[in-house]
Every structure is written in structure tokens, then in C-alpha cells.
Design goal:
This protein has one domain. It is built from 4 helices and no strands. By secondary structure, the chain is an all-alpha fold. Helix 1 packs parallel to helix 3 and helix 3 packs antiparallel against helix 4.
């Protein structure tokens, strides 16, 4: 295979992988929509439970609230961990993109410091890591607040035992999620010396 054919082949694969990254990013916005819908469900769950107990007074109201909030916690956990799987997949693709960029630069006889075919992970790494960490951290704080504090406060009013159980389970899910997200991010960014 001559040099022009090799560059063409590398570029086609590079373009295909770039499309996969773009699709993945678009899919991440769908995850935000799901999180928004689930967040809205937390706010409206109490009125729904009120309606159910009016229709059927034999239903234990505090138990219904507890089960509803646990169901929503499960939905949040599934969306969150699915998002981490998507992130791991995207990190894998970006890693491949970087390899293809290196090969394309070699074929074009570009120097090591050339910005031709180079994802800008190395440029302004301090600014990038700060912006990434700040944005991700604030998003997590808002989600953790919505998933833990609001249901906990509502449940405290009706049944403290359910509230404490819910809070412990919600915090456990949040801690596991944060630990997995940190490890995943660290693996990727350590590989490219970002953080």
C-alpha cells in the first residue's frame, strides 16, 4: 500500500470514529433529558401518592412514598451507570482517534508538536481539567441533592425510619457512582497526562 492509499485509509477510519464520538455525545444529551424527566417525577411523586391514597385509603401512604422514591432512585442509578458505560465507550474511541492521528501525522511528515490531526487534549490541560472537574462536580452536586435531600425531607415528614433507610441507600448509590466515575476519568486522563 502506497503512502497516499495509507493516508486515505487512515483518514476514512478516523472520520468513522469521529462520527461515533459525535453520536455518543448526542446520546448523552438524551441522558440529560431522561434525568430531567426523572427529576420532575421526584417533585410530582407526592401528589401522585396523595391521589392513590384518596382512591384507595387502605394503601399505606408512607410506604407508598418510600417505594416510589426507591423506584426513582433505581431509575437515576440506571441512567447514571448507563451514562458511565457510554463514557467508557467514548474514552475508548477517543483513544483510538489519538492513535490514528499519530499515524496520519507520521504519514504527512508532521513534527511531534504539530497540531495537524491532533485532539487538543494536551493543550491548556490545566484549564481543561479545571473546567471539566468544576462542571462535572456541580452537575453531580445538583443531582445528588435532587436524588437524596428532596425525597429524604418528604419522607421525614411521614416516616423517619423510611427517610433514614432511603437516605442511606441513596448515599450508597451516589458514593458508588462517584467512585466509578472518578476511576474511569482518572484511567483515561492519566493515560494522556491530562490531570
Amino acid at each position: 500500500m502506497d503512502s497516499n492509499q495509507r493516508i486515505e485509509y487512515l483518514y476514512k477510519e478516523y472520520a468513522r470514529l469521529s462520527e461515533k464520538v459525535e453520536e455518543n455525545i448526542k446520546g448523552s444529551f438524551d441522558d440529560f433529558k431522561l434525568l430531567g424527566a426523572a427529576s420532575a417525577s421526584i417533585i410530582v411523586w407526592k401528589p401522585i401518592a396523595d391521589l392513590i391514597t384518596q382512591v384507595n385509603p387502605k394503601v399505606n401512604y408512607s410506604g407508598l412514598l418510600f417505594l416510589g422514591f426507591l423506584s426513582l432512585l433505581l431509575v437515576f442509578a440506571l441512567i447514571g451507570f448507563t451514562s458511565l458505560v457510554r463514557t467508557a465507550y467514548m474514552f475508548s474511541i477517543v483513544s483510538s482517534l489519538l492513535s490514528f492521528e499519530e499515524e496520519i501525522r507520521k504519514e504527512l511528515n508532521e513534527g511531534e508538536h504539530s497540531q495537524v490531526f491532533k485532539v487538543n487534549l494536551e493543550r491548556n490541560t490545566k484549564k481543561f481539567s479545571t473546567a471539566y472537574g468544576l462542571t462535572y462536580g456541580i452537575t453531580l452536586i445538583i443531582l445528588i441533592f435532587a436524588v437524596t435531600i428532596i425525597p429524604f425531607a418528604v419522607l421525614c415528614y411521614f416516616n423517619v425510619l423510611y427517610a433514614v433507610i432511603y437516605l442511606l441507600l441513596a448515599l450508597l448509590v451516589c458514593i458508588i457512582y462517584v467512585q466509578v466515575a472518578r476511576k474511569l476519568t482518572r484511567i483515561f486522563f492519566d493515560k494522556f497526562k491530562i490531570f
